[in-house]
Amino acid sequence: MENETEKVPCEGREYSNCGKHIAAVHDTMDVLNGKWKITIISLLGFGKRRYSEILKEVTGISGKMLSRELKDMEMNLLIKRTVISEQPISVMYELTDYCVDLLPVIDSLAEWGKRHRQCIVEQFKQEPVEVI
Amino acid sequence: MENETEKVPCEGREYSNCGKHIAAVHDTMDVLNGKWKITIISLLGFGKRRYSEILKEVTGISGKMLSRELKDMEMNLLIKRTVISEQPISVMYELTDYCVDLLPVIDSLAEWGKRHRQCIVEQFKQEPVEVI
DNA sequence: CTGCATCCTGGGCGATACTG
DNA sequence: CAGTATCGCCCAGGATGCAG
């Protein structure tokens, strides 16, 4: 409501970088495509897991998708796959150092998500009076 | 290749938060769903634009999708819509302060994307030596 | 110029069953 | 237990045309 500056939202941004910037974002989102990868990375950020554990903890994902995503992520060097035991076979997945660099990014995503949820809740409350 | 620590990737993470964390990420990605919103926000991070300008600068997007995404984002309070002139009608879009908070997040996405592109390029160079 | 309605296709994703 | 194969749904999103 405060009629603040009408400036470019984020200072320090030069329009000349715009194209590159967008392309770079696109590169990242390309790797993180689909419905599940970010969730899987988030989970693995809390420690390595076996296939079946991930399957249980990522609610809603099917076996096919998990396999596919995992394979895809391995090819992109986001996770490391290790066969633990042969009988019965079991496989461990963990983030690569490379992918660990993504965790702070994902954390900030989460941060914003929390605030957003707050805002949405507030909105619904605003019907009667302003409440804390 | 360095056999580093086998610890939990990111210290300071408690498993008890895992569920909440993932949910929060999901909330954000829910708002940012689809193929275009992040790109649009990135662009608008470089300054307000008119509908037709965005249409031109976001390569590949169709008019229908732009309208749809814009409306959706307005409902989520990510952007502000302002009618500039009536004849011919023209509309300006800009990020809300609320959404500006997302820019640093997107920036880090871009940051990682740049590094990732580097890595991919490196990989192709590495053909000569041992490959699986 | 901005924005909506309609039609249509591709592929993301789920369910199930099967192999090693 | 880990992963693959098959089938099919469904909807994001492209193309086009119309309206204010």
UniProtKB/TrEMBL annotation, chains A, B:
InterPro entries assigned to the protein according to its UniProt record, in alphabetical order: HTH_HxlR, WH-like_DNA-bd_sf, WH_DNA-bd_sf
GO MF annotation: an example: DNA binding
Pfam families: HxlR (PF01638)
Keywords: DNA-binding, Transcription, Transcription regulation
UniProt domain HTH hxlR-type: residue ranges: 18-121
Stated name of the protein: Helix-turn-helix transcriptional regulator
Lineage: Bacteria, Pseudomonadati, Bacteroidota, Sphingobacteriia, Sphingobacteriales
